[in-house]
Each structure stands twice: as C-alpha cells, then as structure tokens.
Amino acid sequence: MDDEILAYYERELTFIREMGSEFAKKYPKVAGRLLLEPDKCEDPHTERLLEGFAFLCARIHKKLDDDFPDITQSLLSILYPHYTNPIPSMSVVTFEPILNNIPAGGYRIERDTALFSKPVEGIPCQFATCYPVTLLPLEVVSATLEDPKKPVRDARQALVLRLKTRNGLTFSELGCDRLRFFLNGQRQHVFHLYELLFNNVCSIECEAGEGRGAPAVLPLEPGCIRPVGFEPGEGMLPYSARSFPGYLLLFEYFCFPEKFLFFDFFGLERLAGGGFGDTVDLRFYLDRPAKSTLLLSESTFCLHAAPIVNLFRRIAEPIRVEHRKTEYLVIPDIRRSEATEVFTVDSVAASRATTSERLGEYKPLYSIRHHREMEEEPDAGAFWHLQRRPSERKGDTGTSLYLSFSDLLFRPREPEAETLIVHVTCTNRDLPARLPFGEPGGDFDME
User: Fold this and answer.
1) How far apart are CA 216 and CA 196, in angstroms?
2) How confident is the model at residue 195 (pLDDT cuts 50, 70, 90)?
3) CB of 199 within 8 A of CB of 286?
4) Which pTM does this prediction carry?
5) Terminal Cα distance for the chain, rounded
6) Quick check: 51 and 13 in contact, CB under 8 A?
C-alpha cells in the first residue's frame, strides 16, 4: 500500500466531515435521523460508511492524479526515452594485465563486455564496458611538465610522457596505430589538463628515449589528439535514434563527466622504421603554461581504461495472462527484487505456458510507424504500453514498471497469449554504492 494514499484519505475524510457539518446545519431533521452533528457522528455505522466512502474517493482522486504523468511519460518515451529511466551507476575501470603475457598485436576487449563485482550481501553487481579496450605490452613510465628543450613556435611549456614497451619489443613492432588515455585524478587537475591538451597544444614530437635504437625525433600535428565520447557508438546509456544526440551528450555529461576524460593519440604507425626503440617521449608543446598547482604523475595518464555502466540484459519473470487485470507488474528477478530494477523493456512476446513456445512479438503502442499499420490492417491487435511508478514496497525508493495492452485507438485489449515473455535491461539500483574499491585481488571479474 502506497503511503501517499493516507494523505488523500485524510483530505477526503476532512472534506466529508466539513460538508456533514454544513449539511447538519442546513437540514437538522435529516441529519438527526443519521445522528449527524456539526463536529461528530454518534452512529458508528454511519461513521464507518463515511470512512469507507472517504477511502474510495481517495483512491479515485489518487488515480486521477496519477494519470497526469502518463501524458508526459508517453511523450518522452517517444522523443527522449532516457529521460524517464532511472540513472544507473557509472564508473571507470582500469584493466591491469600481466604485460609479459600480452602479444605484440595486443589483446582487445570489446564494448559491452560484462564485468562482475565482488558480492555485496551475496549479490554481485554486473557492469558493462562502454568503450573497447586494447591491452598492449606498454606502460607509462613518467609524466612531467618541462621547459621546451628547443625553440618551438609559440611554445612556452612542454608536457612530456615517457612510454616504455615490454617483452623486449620496440615501438615499430607494436601492432597498433593509436593509444587511448584516461586522465585520472582530482577534478580540478584533470579538467585543466584536458583543456590544455585540446586548446593549447601547438606542436607534438615523438622522441626516442633511452633504449634500443638510434636517437630520432618525429614531428606530429596537434590533430593527432582526438577527444573520445562524442561519437554515436560511444554512449554510456542506450538511446533511441529518434533522440537528438546533443541532448544525450549533455545528459551523460551531468551524470558522469569522467566519461569524457578520454583521448586518443594517433600516429604510432609512423614510428615504424624511424629508429625508435623500446622507450619514447611524447612531447606536447603548450602555447601557455599550466597552472602552478597542477599535479602530474605517471598515474594521471592511464592506459587500458574504459567507462563502465551498471546495465545488463535478462529475461524478466514470466507474466501469466489472467484476463482479470488491465496491467501487469514487470518483475525482473523475484529472488533479488531489492537489488534489481528495470531500466528499459526491450521486447514483449507471447508464449505458451506449457511448452514455452514463442507465438509472436507485440509492438509498443507509442511509435511513429503505426499509421502504416492502421492503413494496412485496421484491427492490428494488441500493443503494449509502460507506466513507471514509485515502488509500493515499504522502504523502497526505486520504481516499478507496469505493462498494459490496448489497440491503436487506445481501447483496452487483452493479449492473446497464456504467458508473456519480457526481455528487459536492468540495473542493480543503489547496490553499487556499497561496493568496496581498491581490493588487492581486483574489484571486478570478467565473464
């Protein structure tokens, strides 16, 4: 039972008592038969009737109020579906491979790779990577700010990154053309560093450091540094193609700005045959000096990192069609209801209760293509619609999804199925907030 119903009930009961007082003053004879007085009712049966009537009116009043969000939810579900969904937990993970076991060509971890945390109260949280990661036998040895070693036009300071290969390899033997870095550290430092890299780099040089091979210097253009996180395939949250991508970028920035602290460095293929050994200094010449308070170290520039989001796909608990309900609660996991919440419903299909045979898939009611179906087939069957409401479980601050069906004219219609199979994308609610970080054996395991 929702706690909000109590406020509606008290409001309706107060109104009935006030109106009963006015009624008793205006019609004292009739009120006398009902034992109504301006401030009390001595007949317990009449009092129970008034309380029961107030309870029914409270439910009707609350239902009318609850119908108002249906309009905005339905509109946003078409234009910007991610606005009505809960915000999942997000973070950045750094893979720590055994560099001696990585081949020269690297080892690629694809986007959407599942990562499982250590169990919290017996429940592991499941995350997914948002960027692909290429593990290379390479590490950042140092990161410093220095004065330019030689005159470079407009250069006032140089940011120097020293990279070193492992396994006896040289840079010409690495099978990659780019490196992806994550700026790790406190926000006041990394955001200033990000601004310097994309606004104030006037020249770039790759210089052979200590190691095998003759000394060499390779000049590169500032365009070799490119931002990450702005392309359509680099989003953290699933979104519809109908949504304006610029709004999604703003949404993700205010949810998790660290997602944009990645950048790609291109041009590594040009090091082949240039006399570069196992150590290279990347010199980023800046046309203005960094703040004196800027803190840098080798841990500021992280390789093998990617943002992760607490989203995973599963099949919700089967819904038995009872033909006595107008809506059905979508339960993602009945055994872990307090640690699992539906982010989106991906598909709804009909199935037989005995054989689990799929009989067909239902389409969402709110779509931009239904006018074609109306022209081709006026009686197109049932379409599903979702409504998200605050959870009615006591102490639960999450939301619940209710599934209902209607035709294209908004008339309620029951699905012609015995069981509904619902594919959903879920989150672990607030459970990731209790995860420990910095464990000696790592924080996540790959599937």
Assistant:
1) 26
2) very high
3) no
4) 0.82
5) 40
6) yes
Structure tokens belonging to residue 224:
């070799």
Rounded Cα–Cα distance for residues 176 and 25 (Å): 90
Contact between 87 and 256 (Cβ < 8 Å): no
- The domain of 51 spans 4-79
The pLDDT of residue 265 is above 80: yes
Residues 175, 148 share a domain: yes
346: left (phi over 0), alpha (psi -120 to 50) or beta: alpha
Tell me the torsion sign for CA atoms 403, 408, 411, 412: negative
* Domain end position, chosen among 37, 52, 79: 79
56-93 pLDDT per residue, tens: 888 887 777 766 667 777 777 777 777 888 999 999 99
Angle between helices 4-26 and 44-79 (to 10 degrees): 130
Here the tokens at position 181 are 């870095």
Task: Using CA atoms of 416, 417, 418, 422 in order, give the dihedral in degrees to the nearest 10.
Answer: -140
Tell whether 420 and 407 lie within a shared domain: yes
Amino acid identity of residue 193, one-letter, is L
> Is the pLDDT reported for residue 257 higher than 80?
yes
